[in-house]
TrEMBL record:
The keyword Nucleotide-binding applies. Residues 17-138 form the AAA domain. InterPro entries: AAA_14, DUF4143, P-loop_NTPase. The keyword Signal does not apply. Keywords: ATP-binding, Nucleotide-binding. It comes from Candidatus Bandiella euplotis. One of its GO terms (molecular function) is ATP binding. Signal peptide: none annotated. This is ATP-binding protein.
Amino acid sequence: MKRENFLQMISDGFLVNPIVAILGPRQSGKTTLTRQYINTIKTEKPIHYFDLEDPNDLAALKSPKAVLENLKGLIVIDEVQRVKELFPVLRVLVDVVNLKQQYLILGSASQELIKQSSETLAGRIEYIELPPFQYCEVKNLEKLWIRGGFPRSFLSVNDSSSYRWRESYIRTFLERDIPNLGIKIPAENIRRFWMMLANNHGGILNASDIGKSLSISHTTVRHYLDILVATFMVRQLYPWFENISKRQIKSPKIYVRDSGILHNLLQIRTNRDLFNHLKLGASWEGFALEELIKHHNFRSQDCYFWSTQNKAEIDLFTINHGKRIAYEFKFTDSPKITPSMRIAIEDLKLDELYVLCPGNKKYQIEDKIIFCGLEKYLESY
């Protein structure tokens, strides 16, 4: 599947910077996207590819300056987080040694986790986050919801194969990928913590309660959470604060970012399992939230929820092109206007409030409040 939007982002990135970084979770399609990009330019410049999971390439880049300084054209470095010492060398190469080089680097951790890149390459690098598949690419909302967007999960021959692939993915992530980042934590500890977050999916983080349940400190809870956020497994949605007198929630909400991974952690194998599960509404909320963020390419730091101590709340709040827009995600065929929505319109001075539900209908029920099927919204906006 050709992901044209991201191919264009790479091309645009190289118009401004000599280094483009594609960051995203393992198996989200970074390597495939890179090969597609190479196919679009292969007649224009030399291509050099280093995969740092290949022992030979990893050994070669133990002396990166000697290997890279005489190369010209596009230099691809896959799984760059395995050799963080590369970043100071890349700065020297793009600044001094060879102005005829471009670097496309791929990583399975956020720029916050690969701190050297943000500190060393400031002003020289463009970051692109590549998520798993989204609705605009696959046009099958129900299948995307149950299986999630990881290509091998979504494209599996049936739900059973998809579920088994995700189970293997989770095991590999815990037992190999996290240790490869230099993080020394027993895999079972992270799994238990991740499963607890899945059971609290869409809820407010209470680090003390989770710590007591797992017999770990609240600081360890924060450390585990930081790891899962930095590896694109979990979204931490922070609260928005208005200068109003009402007491507001200050802790973040937590979501497992990929709905398929969430369903494995909750042992949901089929649509029937999902529709009979207590977390059905929370699963829909997280799935719709992620699709919306990917659809609009919202930055994480521009996305908030809003909640007050008297239970008035909004699932997602953002300011987009100067407009204050809020979203509620409801798994229902007949959504209703709630007092909470009217309070939010007044307190947050909203321009629009969308209530996104299953289905393909759209209608405005009241000034500033629009009910819309998620599929209809993703097709229309």
